[in-house]
Predict the structure.
Amino acid sequence: MSYRIVVAGGGAGGLELVTRLGRTLRKSGRADVTLIDGQMTYLWKPLLHEVAAGSLDAARNEPNFVAQAKWNHFAFQLGTLCELDRNNRLIQLAPILDDLGTELMPTRIRSNGMSVALLINQAVSTGIAGIFLPTVGRFGYSTIFFIFAGCTVVYFVTAFFFLPETKGKTLEEIEAHFSRGQTKA
Ligand SMILES: Cc1cc2nc3c(=O)[nH]c(=O)nc-3n(C[C@H](O)[C@H](O)[C@H](O)COP(=O)(O)OP(=O)(O)OC[C@H]3O[C@@H](n4cnc5c(N)ncnc54)[C@H](O)[C@@H]3O)c2cc1C
């Protein structure tokens, strides 16, 4: 491909544009065309009052971007544009949240992350189950709870001094932090 064209917003203007670009440049192999939109479908605004009045079923009158992309040779990426870096020709998409406001992660990251987290969780649970009663039997309850308190202190120090604050940050910002090898946000 010679060019990579990204259009943000598949509205009245954007959808028409990518459809034409897809049918011409992308189909002939001269450019890669991608549409980005925060929604999966688009409703032509002049129809809004009919939807509001209940005389029109919005779901039957909205072009679906995935279908439109497939039929017209462009790619569709769900996401909301939140940053544009003109110098480096980069755009950044906002995190995609589910209905509860939790950030959705790509399946690749989620499956790897969950595998590691569950493995560690099970290993720790097995370790505690294995040492708890023998330690209590030999040294008493106070010893085992001092050990647990020590683990909590180690965890607190690690989290406080070595892990960055991730609240309100995107996955890209967190990834950039660890890529830089910094120890504090
Ligand atoms: C109630 C109403 C009635 C109208 N009636 C008429 C009419 O009769 N005749 C007429 O000519 N015009 C009419 N208009 C105006 C017309 O709808 C707009 O001029 C036209 O839709 C503008 O097109 P657009 O492509 O610029 O934006 P829009 O059609 O608004 O599309 C914007 C798209 O961008 C997406 N988007 C927005 N922000 C982001 C982001 N950060 N990242 C990714 N995607 C994003 C949105 O999801 C949307 O799909 C009406 C408008 C309204 C609101």
User: Anything to note?
Assistant: Residues 8-14, 36-39, 42, 45-46, 48, 80-81 surround flavin-adenine dinucleotide (CB under 6 Å). The helical segments are 12-26, 48-53, 58-61, 65-72, 107-139, 141-162, 171-180.
